[in-house]
Write a structure and sequence with these properties.
This protein has 342 residues and is α/β, with parallel strands linked by helices. 27% of the residues lie in helices and 26% in strands. Helix 4 (171-182) links the parallel strand 10 and strand 11. Helix 3 (137-156) packs across helix 4 (171-182) and helix 3 packs across helix 9 (288-299). It is globular, with a radius of gyration of 20 Å.
């Protein structure tokens, strides 16, 4: 089978490998049709992905077809189209026992901590599969990145009365915007890239945008909310300065959710934190329930995936074209690798 491996930063190789077809009772053999390219993959290609080892088969945003199932598998059948929940828990630790499967102590992310889906066939535990009779493989490959935003919005417990500011208009910020809008709240997006902000207004339904590169930020934020500050701020930048600034942006009694992360210490001015009585939350990965929620909402037509995919790449062209995905002028929102014809 065709296998694409990131041997080292900046270098993909192609090889013909044997698929692992011996299944345990709870496993499924899957044919990979579509693979989404995400920020993790781009960081790995640059050599800037922390806690990452090479060589590595990337790929954790997957649209797959069930080819065979183990004798104990009941949640999927041969022929099912599925999304893959790539957060594999190797132990049933305290977090997992409490239902927090997105942040288990011994979590292994498929395509990051272990070899992933950039190959024709994979086998995984069937409990990580989420089938849909109506969605196509590209839509199913979008479930995982959408799940990051969905989980963050669920963590924030946004209501229609909230005023919401999403910081960062990259793919994760866009996913966050999409699910925040579904709550009925007023949602504005802040970034320094005017093209991304225009995309948020014109394609993603943002109620307003703030270009942080063009002036005093807080007055512009207040302008989006009739003079008020946002009751919920979701930061998807991974920038320590942006994260620190959220304490100034959020309303008194409001919530902050950090979706993006950086490898370092985060500090803030404690008197301001206490004065505003701010609720500070982290959001990591997504739950199986988030995957099921997204599939249901996509099937009901509540989520439009058409604006998401801006670039499609045949598997054989990936090595030659991957470098271009790093360039801002390419205008990539989401690139999709076409492993096999759907």
């Amino acid at each position: 089978m065709l296998t694409i491996t990131l041997q080292e930063p900046g270098r993909f190789t192609y090889s013909d490998t044997q698929p692992q077809t011996d299944l345990l009772p709870g496993e499924a053999l899957l044919k990979v049709h579509r693979i989404g390219i995400c920020g993790t993959d781009l960081h790995a290609y640059r050599g800037k992905q922390p806690f990452f080892s090479y060589p590595r088969i990337l790929g954790h945003e997957l649209g797959v077809e069930v080819v065979r199932i183990g004798e104990q598998v009941q949640n999927v059948r041969v022929g099912d189209r599925c999304a893959v929940e790539p957060y594999f828990n190797r132990t049933t630790d305290q977090a997992v026992r409490r239902g927090r499967t997105n942040c288990g102590e011994n979590l292994s992310v498929f395509g990051v901590h272990e070899d992933g889906g950039m190959r024709e066939f994979i086998k995984i535990s069937a409990r990580y599969l989420h089938p849909s009779a109506h969605l196509d493989y590209e839509q199913l490959a979008l479930i995982e990145p959408l799940g990051i935003g969905c989980h963050a919005v669920n963590r924030a417990a946004i209501t229609p009365d909230d005023l919401v500011l999403v910081i960062g208009a990259g793919p994760i910020g866009l996913a966050t915007l999409q699910f925040a809008k579904l709550t009925g709240a007023r949602v504005a997006v802040m970034d320094i890239n005017e093209k991304r902000l225009a995309f948020c207004r014109e394609k993603m339904g943002a109620d307003g945008t703030v270009n942080a590169a063009t002036g005093e930020v807080i007055p512009m934020i207040r302008e989006q909310f009739a003079g008020d500050l946002p009751t919920v701020v979701l930061d998807a930048t991974g920038s320590p300065q942006s994260m620190k600034n959220t304490l100034d942006y959020v309303a008194f009694g409001g919530k902050i959710v950090f979706i993006g992360l950086f490898q370092g210490d985060f500090t803030f001015f404690d008197p301001l934190f206490h004065k505003k009585e701010i609720t500070l939350l982290a959001s990591r990965n997504a739950l199986g329930s988030d995957f099921r929620q997204i599939i249901r909402q996509m099937e009901e037509g509540l989520i439009d995936t058409r604006p998401w995919i801006t670039h499609r790449i045949a598997a054989g062209d990936l090595a030659a074209r991957f470098e271009s995905l790093l360039l801002p002028e390419t205008g990539v929102i989401k690139a999709m690798v076409e492993m096999l014809d759907a």
